[in-house]
Amino acid sequence: MPKKTRTRRISYHRPISLITSLYKIIAKVLSRQLGKVLQDTIFLTQGVFVERRQILDVVLIANELVDEKKRSREEGVVFKINFEKAYDHVDWGILDHVLERKSFSSKWRSWMRRCLYLTTFAILVNGNAKGWVKAYRGLRQGDPLSSFLFTIVVDVLTSLEELQSLELILLVYRCLSRLTIDLNKSTLSRINISQDQTARLASLLDCVVFEWLLMYLGLPLRGPKIDFLLGSSVE
Domain Reverse transcriptase: where (predicted)? Predict the structure, then answer.
């Protein structure tokens, strides 16, 4: 399905995900069981698709961090990362390895592999399917398991936070997960530093400079006119 009119590149199209009723029932049962244990194995900084956590909590914490930086006059930047076709690039090998490291049983991991290996693609030419292609990576849109499995893969990036170099973090994470950072959609926002400094950092990371107001998980990071919306503190 084309994302825009007059598409000339395959990347400007999105796949249509079709899932059988039987698989959807099986995946729903597995996703419910996975959702119950996800909070015990995912870092606290991840608030999406994790039971008993809310996106708003993560946004409020991010706002507090930005506000504290501004009050302390400490120099810094906010680097907002956008993954390029995130679900499509997930490496099955690293996903299985992460599940193993998180102490999921071999039986459970085999169930996950079977769910992934069932994926096939067909290219429609004038409305007719021209052959089937076996998938070797990626997660299906609309699959009840996909959101949880993607959260597990992204959690690897959180565990690498102790590395000192941001570029090294992104390089290591890309090699492990096969997820590519879309630098055209990733942004850098300054805190208590000059526009020239921000421009130099953005040039090093090859990303875009974005002035406040900055959207994060669909909600704005704190600015002087939205304090009443987000509250004054997070306990």
Answer: 1-235
